[in-house]
Amino acid sequence: MTLSLLFWLxxxxxxxxxxxxxxxxxxxxYEHVLKYSRERGLQLLDQSLVLVGLKxxxxxxxxxxxxxxxxxxxxxxxxxxxxxxxxxNGVRLKMLDVEAHVMPNSLSDETLH
Length: 113
Fold this sequence. Notes:
It comes from OM182 bacterium BACL3 MAG-120507-bin80. This is DUF3301 domain-containing protein. The protein has one domain (3-112). Helix content is 34%, strand content 43%. It has one helix and six strands; from the N terminus they run αββββββ. The protein has a four-stranded antiparallel beta sheet, covered by helices on one side. A two-stranded antiparallel sheet has the order 5-6. Strand 2 and strand 3 form a beta hairpin. The protein starts with a helix and ends with a strand. The mean pLDDT is 89.
């Protein structure tokens, strides 16, 4: 086994590991967003999260993690789209935020949330 082959195998293993971990974190983020949406009567649109940021950060216990920031869209009535964001430090939820949106209480009464 040559040093070059060992380098390429290590690089491929690191790539697969990064992809697997990213998919796992995205699944956790999606579950958080889905739970948040259901609890508040929101409709998660397109059933997807879009990765908009990735950076290394120190966690609460001092370890190095990747902070992933995802964007998603939701609706209250099915007519208007609103944006939301979720940040994950590793597999832990750091922040979940949504734009101000109108929540219909009944057919004619609407309130801002």
